[in-house]
Each structure stands twice: as structure tokens, then as C-alpha cells.
Amino acid sequence: MSGRRLLLARASRGRAVLAEELAAAGCLVDEVVVYSSTDIEPDDPEIQRLAAQLAAGRIDWITVTSSAIARSLARLFGENLRRARLASISPVTSATLRELGHEPAVEATEYTMRGLVEAIGRSPQFPNGGPTQVDQEG
Fold it and tell me: Which domains does the chain have, with CATH numbers?
């Protein structure tokens, strides 16, 4: 791969691992931010509604699909995150949850949405065995 020129399209935040690995392999890497993500504020009506449901114990599971989402959830819901089971998509996301003081109930072994659904379904904490199918297009 040495000497190859690559364009890495990415989000406004996230880890630089891919760019670093490509550069270490000898690639010339140009990066471009193709979308920006911003945090929702705690006073958002939808967040307030969900926070009340979480505090009341009416949310069983929360899927956590990135470290940025883990940090946002901790900021928005704080200790109430302990009232639901956290399903992590990867070891990196699980490590972030642990740094924030939250232990994931499950972690996907295949780091995809399908893998996350399957991890929840395999959990003994999921009533009736959990979901059995995943939308092929989602």
C-alpha cells in the first residue's frame, strides 16, 4: 500500500485510528469531514421525556454504538443510566462506558448493528430470548 493516496471521508468527531494505520502502512492520507455531529442539550423536550421514562424504570435496554454516544448518554442521563441495561457495540465503546462508571450488560462479538441485536438476544437478562431477526437493510 506504500505510496498510495487515499481520501478518508469521516465524521467531525471520532478516533483517528484508521488514518493513523493507513499512514503507518505508507499511504498518503487526505481526510475530509463529510458530516458534523452535535450534542443534544438536556433541556430538549424529547430528552426530558426519555429521562423521565428512564428514571421510572420503563426503559429496559439502551444501545450504545460509539464512544461519543456513551459520553453523551452519561452527560444527559447520569446515574439514571444504571436503571437500564447497556448494550455495547464494541470493546472500545465498552471501555468508554467503564471509564464513565457504567458496566455494559452485553457487548457485541460482531461489531455491527446485527451483532448488537444478537448480543441482546443472547442475554439471559432479555425476556423471551430477545429479538430473533434483524432487518437485512438496516
Answer: 5-35 (no CATH), 45-129 (3.40.50.10090)
